[in-house]
Specification:
By secondary structure, the chain is an all-alpha fold. The protein has 5 helices and no strands.
Length: 85
């Protein structure tokens, strides 16, 4: 039995919902792969190791995900809000 991308997405959404995650409807296999790249990079995992795990062949692709997350995390207004809380 092969799982389609749509079936995997539905499984992820269901388990995220069951776990009480507010934005469960937004979960997908793509967002999980992006999250893997972002979290692994933040935790100091090497780019080649991230690429192997995510099965990325192009370094540009994985770097785009990581850099996009860094821009979000390093957003000036976000940093101000963090200091206020």
């Amino acid at each position: 039995m092969n799982l389609t991308a749509a079936a995997v997405n539905e499984i992820l959404k269901k388990h995220a919902h069951d776990a009480g995650i507010e934005n469960a409807i937004d979960f997908s296999n793509h967002s999980m792969r992006r999250g893997l790249a972002t979290t692994a990079s933040r935790d100091g995992v090497s780019i080649p190791a991230i690429m192997r795990q995510g099965r990325w062949k192009q370094v540009d692709t994985v770097m785009e995900y990581i850099e996009a997350a860094q821009r979000f995390e390093e957003n000036a207004s976000g940093l101000v809000l963090q200091k206020m809380s």
